[in-house]
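Me: I'm a chemist; would you kindly supply a protein sequence with its structure tokens?

Assistant:
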Amino acid sequence: MLKGAIWDLDGTLLDSMSAWDHVGEIYLRSQGIEPEPDLNEIIATMSLQQAADYFIDYYGVKQTPDDLIKGAVAIVDDFYRYEAQLKPHAAKFLTQLQQAGVKMCIATAAERSLVETVLTRCGVLHCFSEIFTCTSVGAGKDEPAIYREAMKFLGTDRSNTIVFEDSLHALTTAKNDGFYVAAVYDEHEEHQDEIRRIVDCIITDYDNPEEFNKFIQGI
């Protein structure tokens, strides 16, 4: 029986990946630094803390990691505050899980202030008992620490907990650590064939999650 759900935010619950497409480039140019062409590819799987360290070490940005993160968050703040929306029917899906007694929390690379802002505005913050961020845990999603911390908080175990993610690297991390994983389709993730090979189920429409419903019947 499914008892716990660990949710990514951007690209999974929110239709928001486009907001991050050029944040690194915008930030570096604001510091008078021209980014290299492969910047977005390099930082795509990094947490904000990891990206900040990379900018300082590789590009020589003359700011502290905390100030750099604050600068990046400021670039997307208005989008989360006023524009970002849940994916269609995501609120309904969350309500159904909550009514079924599934305990849920957030595990995201975004900063907590952004998460609280957007989930409050979208009316679903109450669905989640806690918010875990890569910054607060001290590790990116190339390591399973954030999922382990979230599961510990929920009081569940790997046999009855599922991780919802949209990106290949995060799904791979959770799956390799023994979690059930549900991939949520997002057009910004190019590696759909690889995702299909490793996940337990895929959700392309929160209003009709047939594959997910079939999978959890066996938990």
The mean pLDDT is 95. Residues 18-83 form a domain with the DNA polymerase; domain 1 fold (CATH 1.10.150). The first helix runs from residue 23 to 30. The first strand starts at residue 4 and ends at 7.
